[in-house]
Specification:
The structure is a single chain. By secondary structure, the chain is an alpha+beta fold. The protein has a single domain, classed as Four Helix Bundle (Hemerythrin (Met), subunit A). The protein is 49% helix and 12% strand. The chain has a 3-stranded antiparallel beta sheet. The protein has a two-stranded antiparallel ribbon with strand order 4-5. Helix 1 packs antiparallel against helix 6. The longest helix is centred in the last third of the chain and has 25 residues. The protein is globular and about 45 Å long. The protein starts with a strand and ends in a 13-residue tail after the last helix.
């Protein structure tokens, strides 16, 4: 572990990963933080497994990842000054049958991982992290203003929740842990 002094002299934890320094926020989004890295969670998930319905679970692995990718894109839009509206209903944050048919499992994984890397890039820019952004709310609710960092922290918590659901769906299917390993406790 490395420590670095931020712009205001405040110590922030930096971790050496390979040859790169990584903040805890970047680790929480993309690497081995409080849970297995997202690429490991998705590793070895076949198209059949991704679309399999588990008894008692409201969504498939595909639908869970599509939802995570949906909110990741909305968060990136907000960080880039695009005031993408919040869906009026929670169901609009999950894919329709037409959206599932239009994007293969491997395409969805690729889109998610590419956008996740864009979020990671934002974590490496201390000035950008402190920028205020407008985050639209549900209709009739005032637009929230937060920093890019706060939005990425919220996104990280949201991702952890849904990636945990993917792990549980994999466990229910007898498809956990992946070959590269994963937390099994």
């Amino acid at each position: 572990m490395w420590f670095a002094l931020g712009k205001e002299g405040v110590s922030s934890k930096m971790y050496l990963v390979g040859e790169d320094l990584m903040t805890e926020l970047e680790r929480a989004l993309t690497a081995d933080s409080a849970f297995a890295p997202p690429p490991h969670i998705l590793e070895g998930v076949t198209d059949e497994l991704a679309h399999r319905r588990q008894t008692g679970a409201p969504h498939s692995i595909y639908e869970e990842l599509w939802h995570v990718a949906f909110w990741l894109r909305v968060s990136l839009d907000w960080a880039n000054g695009i005031e993408t509206p919040v869906p009026a209903h929670a169901s609009e944050g999950f894919p329709s049958a037409a959206q599932i048919a239009a994007e293969s499992w491997s395409q969805l994984q690729g889109r998610f991982l590419r956008d996740l890397e864009q979020a990671a890039v934002l974590t490496r820019d201390p000035v950008r992290l402190k920028q205020p952004i407008r985050c639209p709310s549900l209709p009739g609710v005032a637009t929230r203003v937060m920093t890019v960092e706060e939005q990425l922290e919220s996104l990280s918590a949201h991702d952890a929740y849904h990636l945990g659901r993917i792990v549980l769906l994999r466990q229910m299917a007898g498809a956990w842990p992946p070959a590269s390993g994963g937390f099994t406790w």
